[in-house]
Amino acid sequence: MWQAEYVRDFLLRLYPRCDVTILGVSTRGDEILDRSLAKIGGKGLFVKELESALAAGDADLAVHSMKDVPMSLPEGFALAAIGEREDARDAFVSNRYASLAALPAGSVVGSSSLRRESQIRASFPQLVVEPLRGNVETRLKKLDAGSYAAIILAVAGLKRLGLASRIRTELAPDKSIPAAGQGALGIEIVAGRAELAAQLAPFNHRETEVCVRAERAVSRALGGSCQVPLGAHAACSGSTITISAFVAMPDGSRMARAVLTGNVADPEAVGLAAAAELERQGARDILASLDHAGTVP
């Protein structure tokens, strides 16, 4: 809802005579909280109902966290704009400990994603990672109730909700590579609505768009979803874009990592080159083993 209100306020500043109404839609991703996303269908669970509202004409645009948007949109839909990214890092949140390294062996860490879990297990095999679902406030309540010694959340979500004070430390992107698109908002519309796309164009932030396109290219090439422990994070500097990416086994026992630099003029090519490097390091074998184990649908 914060995201929808943020986009509404942006549009009202841009078009003060425009009437912008929020249509609240509950998705299956919001409703099913007793199982991990990897077990109930992944990222698409947060967008399907919104796309249904678009297709039915009940809504003109849908606002998404880009990390929740499937790598390939269904036919008939398009991304009209990607807004300026908030902090893309993961946050370490704990009431007692200052960092993952400070946690005693056997401490329980709550995480909602296989991506975070695999990186924690690889670097801190002495810790126990348990599933954590629900909205941000619900997750914090579970931490405060003592169910976890620490939890890992997105810095962006905490900052947007005015909860930055709960962050003990931000995890460096090279230590906890974020999800593709993490921290960025996307606006989805029905394809072919050129006038609406033009009206939404000012929301697009070019540097964020370029980085997210590169990140999503990695994930798309490797079939990234909530069922695959995969991360990709890009940053621009002038005409150069640098991307870090990884794919791993959920237990962190095997991991392929890549860091590549390219030209911002073709971010997808940089992402595809990163995916190729991960494949050279055995990413396909990792994905095949996940598929065999039933992790990937």
Question: What do these coordinates show?
Answer:
It is a single chain. Helices cover 34% and strands 21% of the residues. With 297 residues, the chain is of the alpha+beta class. The protein has 3 domains: 1-83 and 184-204, D-Maltodextrin-Binding Protein, domain 2 (3-Layer(aba) Sandwich), CATH 3.40.190.10; 90-171, 3-Layer(aba) Sandwich (D-Maltodextrin-Binding Protein, domain 2); 206-297, Double Stranded RNA Binding Domain (2-Layer Sandwich). Strand 10 (240-248) and strand 11 form a beta hairpin. The radius of gyration is 19 Å and the shape is globular.
Q: Can you name the CATH architecture of the largest domain?
A: 3-Layer(aba) Sandwich
Total domain modules: 3
Shape: globular
Radius of gyration: 19 Å
- The secondary structure category is alpha+beta
Mean pLDDT: 91
List the strand order in the largest sheet.
5-4-6-3-7
Main beta sheet: strand number and arrangement?
5 strands, mixed
Task: Give the low-pLDDT segments.
Answer: 31-43
The share of residues in extended strands comes to 15-25%
- Count of individual beta strands: 11
Share in helix: 25-40%
User: Briefly, what CATH class of the largest domain?
Assistant: Alpha Beta
Number of helices: 11
Distance between the termini: 30 Å
